[in-house]
Amino acid sequence: MTTSRTFLIEPNRLFRQGLRHLLSGTRFEAGAEFDTVKLALEAGDAGFTPDLIISGQPVGDEADLRTLREVFPATRILVLADDMSVDVLRTAMGAGADGFLSKNVSPEALIQSLQLIMLGEKVFPTNLAAMLLDISAPSPQNSIRGLSPREQEILQLLVTGASNKMIAIRLGITEATVKVHLKTLLRKIDVNNRTQAAIWAMNNGFSAEGAGTPTRGFQAASA
């Protein structure tokens, strides 16, 4: 079984211990646990780099999450939240989280979501995604920012959470070409990463339905 070095960040000791017990014996068994983001960052400074971070720290101010992303750029980050509002989702995903789930998620759904995240998918509840789409205002035509048709196709696929490999297969191009388009795309819409680009797209009228058959990205997790 392939293992993933996992950090747990959770201020509630009882919940943290319960989560550790739940993950014990799985590929996501916790290698270290912390009650604050600051302590996890200190572990990073000491040279410890996890494959996965599961954080139950309240998102609130996104600075902590952004710092986690900066210190651990290649690490997958899942936020487990008490507050499942669309604003908190927007903050978490915009700050670089790869997943956003309720702390009430079922153990089975949590493990499945972690597996998807480690495959490069983005995972969050589809009801919140629908709320993001409901409040989106301008259409892509009015907010195109000079995007080429190919860049628009890639942007639409980002909404589904598609990885570079999936986008390449879908569009019949190489992953290297996808990366080139993505770099230009991020610059044009003035965002820092693919998650922010997906949120920008949803806020500007792009939808998963417009991309055809949805991929596994941005999955809902059943409670």
UniProtKB/TrEMBL annotation:
Does the keyword Translocase feature in the UniProt annotation?
no
Domain HTH luxR-type: residue ranges? 140-205
- PROSITE patterns cross-referenced by the UniProt entry: HTH_LUXR_2, RESPONSE_REGULATORY
- By its UniProt entry, which Pfam families does this protein fall under? GerE
**UniProt cross-references to CDD domains, sorted A to Z:** LuxR_C_like
Q: Which PANTHER family match?
A: TRANSCRIPTIONAL REGULATORY PROTEIN DESR, TWO-COMPONENT RESPONSE REGULATOR
Q: What is this protein called?
A: Response regulator transcription factor
